[in-house]
Each structure stands twice: as C-alpha cells, then as structure tokens.
Amino acid sequence: MTVMRAAMLRAPGPPEQFEVTEVEIPRFGRDEVLVQVRACGVSSRDVVERNGTYRRDVTFPLVIGLEISGTVVECGQDVPDLRPGDHVCSKAFSSCGQCRLCRTGRETTCSRRRPVRGGYAEYVVLPWDALVRVPSGLPFEETCGLGPAGGVALNAVRDVARVTVGETVLITGATGGVGWMALQIARLSGARVIAATRDPDRRSSLLEAGADEVIVIDGPDFSPQVRTLTDGEGVDVVVDTVGSPVFGSCFNSLAVHGRYALVGQLLGEEISINPARIFFKRASLLGVGSVSRAQLADVVDLAARGQIRPRIACTLPLDDVVRAHHLVERSALFGRVVLAPSPSASTE
Length: 348
Ligand SMILES: [Zn+2]
Hints:
Elements: E1 3-9, E2 18-24, E3 32-41, H1 44-51, E4 67-75, E5 87-90, E6 93-94, H2 100-103, E7 114-115, E8 123-127, E9 131-134, H3 140-143, H4 146-160, E10 168-172, H5 177-188, E11 192-197, H6 203-209, E12 213-216, H7 223-229, E13 235-240, H8 244-253, E14 254-262, H9 275-280, E15 284-287, H10 293-304, E16 312-317, H11 321-329, E17 336-340
Parallel strand pairs: 10-11, 10-13, 11-12, 13-14, 14-15, 16-17
Antiparallel strand pairs: 1-2, 3-4, 3-8, 3-17, 4-5, 5-9, 6-7
Helix pairs in contact: 4-5, 4-10, 7-8
The chain binds zinc ion.
Domain Enoyl reductase (ER): 13-339
GO molecular function, one term: oxidoreductase activity
Protein name: Zinc-binding dehydrogenase
C-alpha cells in the first residue's frame, strides 16, 4: 500500500479549490509517526490557510488539517512513547524540545516550532511531539479537537488566568470551540461561570454545559448585565475568545484586580484604551497561545473521565470537504465540523 486519498489544495482559493485525489503516502523520519487519520476537525486556521490569508510556512500544493485523531500505524526509531495501534490526537504545532524556550516550560513559543498539517487525508506523518495518546474508548470525532480547543482552554483558564474556587469568570464566544471547553473547565475549577453569546437559541445549551448565567449580547456594551449579575463588582477573570468587538464590554466587566485572558481575535481591527484605566483597575492583561504536550495530556484525562466534552455538529466523509468548509465559513452550525478521512471513523 503506497497511495492514499487526500484533499489537495494546489493554490489558495474558495472551498471549491479542494481536489480529493490519490497521492503517495508520506514517508516518516526517525522522530516521526505515521498515523491513519480517523477524524480531522475543520478549524478556522484551515479556512485562512485555504483562502490565502494565513501564509506562514504555507506552500502549495498542500494538504491542510491540524485537528487530527487516529491510529498509530508505524513509528520512527527515536519515538519514545507511542506504539502501533495507539489512538492519538494532535496539537496544532510541534516544538523542538531543545531550545531555551522548550527547556524552560515555554514550548508553545519554541523558536523552531512547526505547524501541524495534513489531516485531510487517510494518512499523515507527524513529529511524535505533536501527538498524545488517548484512551481507545473515546470517539475519534471528540478527540480530534481536544488539543486546539480543549488544550487552549485549559491553558487559558488553569495556567494563565489561574482561575480558582469561588471566583467569577466571564467567557465570550462561549458556543465556539475554545469557549465551549473554557466554560466547562472554569466550572470544574470551582468558579461561577457567566457565558456570553449572541444567539438566544443557545442559552439552554450553555446552561446544560455548566454555565451559571448566560448573557445574550444585543448591544454595544453588555457590561451592565455583568455588573447586575455580580452586585456591581464585576468578574475576577475574563476569558475572551472573540477579541476586539467585545474588548470594551469585557474590560468594563472586569473587577478591580481582575485578570483578562486574551485567547482569540476574530477580526483585524485594533482596540484602544486609556492606559490609566488599566492601572487604576490594577488589571492584568494576559496573552494565551496554543497548548503544550503536557497540557494536552491533562485535557485528554479530563475527557476520559467525562468531565469535559466537546460539541460535535456533524461528521462528514472526505469527499464532502467543500461542503464542510462552506459550513465552517458561514458559522452555520453549533459545534465542530469533523471530516472522517478513513472509513469506520466512528465505530472503532
Ligand atoms: Zn524549542
């Protein structure tokens, strides 16, 4: 067996640019792993890599897809902790393990980090560092997004914002991939969770997922609603997965000594703020990015114990890749859109 099916991009463009075709199965090196792809989430990075907006390390022809889960087929001789047959999921970047940043617990900013790609195919070769073993009982559809969504949420809530028992946390974009997981992890941390969304139809789902309160955004500043819910004090922590459109509301919602964790920016626009407002409030503005291998392993444990659960909107065969990208681009669905490049993705 030397060939596989893959959704190839020969140039940037609209979703119709994908061509599902037969290509060579890639070869693996000493520190790499050949994985049979059972599920690959369609992420917003996939969309901007496809349409040409994201150009870093992008050369065509290209197979994209970074939210990968599947089964290990073969391992290079230097792979320390994975074996054929293991179920694995990926993070969005691999790191070198050697540089100063990697050696000081800051691998997400590794100077030699490489983006994970290639999940829109039956097989992919990845550095072992980008993969974490998952229990075989977890569905591939659910594990594929644990790194880019759950891992980033854990990084934001537990390790950057350091949410703790009794605090109040505001989460924006709470029905998005990261927001959905951040809400569950903040709740697990013992915090009171206020979830913000623009869609009133999603209120009940957010409450079921663990939100204590839900704010439906219907104007330019929703901070009065947050103030009302917090006896005028505001929240201890904001986990913001939306960015500039809600920055003003979020900062106004922040209590004195509050921590503002910036996780996402959906648009290109700037924000402005009088610096005095930051120091008068003694606020901390915190940048959150990516996920380490250890954090991903912790998220896998939470998922294995049933303490967090991603929301899957639909699982489609690789031949439906064009449709999958239209669905994600239009934000048409509530939950992740997942491709299943290899057969029997949901049954094994
Ligand atoms: Zn490094």
